[in-house]
Design goal:
With 132 residues, the chain is mainly α. It has helices at residues 2-25, 30-56, 85-102, 104-122. The chain folds into two domains: 2-65; 85-130. The two termini are 29 Å apart.
């Protein structure tokens, strides 16, 4: 995580410089200037979060300069290969983006379907006899 934190934190001054240069060259155009400042703020937030996370978790094999590939072997998480919920989330996202072109009422329908699909995906293993 240390590498990720440094990457995002090193981007903050870059985006600040780019925002100032863009603002000067564009005659202080508000949308692009503010957008670049917000990108710098977002990089700062992500970098600060990763920097705080470095203190809370143990070092990963990727963080060890002398680490080997074998150190990262094993389970990396839980994922159900036969789950239909990611497809439902993708369909809901497609409906939301279609709603941006067709009508706002469709955005609300897609958002509701997306929330239902997300809840289904999160609680997929928490049903019935085999719930943990």
């Amino acid at each position: 995580m240390r590498t990720e934190a440094k990457t995002f934190l090193y981007l903050v001054p870059w985006f600040l410089v780019v925002a100032v240069v863009y603002a000067v060259w564009s005659g202080f155009e508000p949308v692009g200037s503010l957008g670049l400042l917000l990108v710098a703020a977002l990089s700062l937030m992500i970098g600060a979060y990763f920097a705080m996370l470095v203190r809370r978790i143990d070092a990963r094999p990727e963080d060890n300069p002398d680490g080997t590939i074998e150190e990262g072997a094993g389970d990396q998480g839980v994922y159900s290969p036969w789950s239909w919920w990611p497809l439902m989330i993708a369909a809901a996202a497609a409906i939301v983006f279609l709603g941006l072109a067709v009508g706002w009422w469709l955005v609300y329908v897609g958002s509701a379907l997306g929330m239902l699909a997300l809840v289904g995906w999160v609680f997929e293993f928490s049903r019935g006899q085999h719930a943990h």
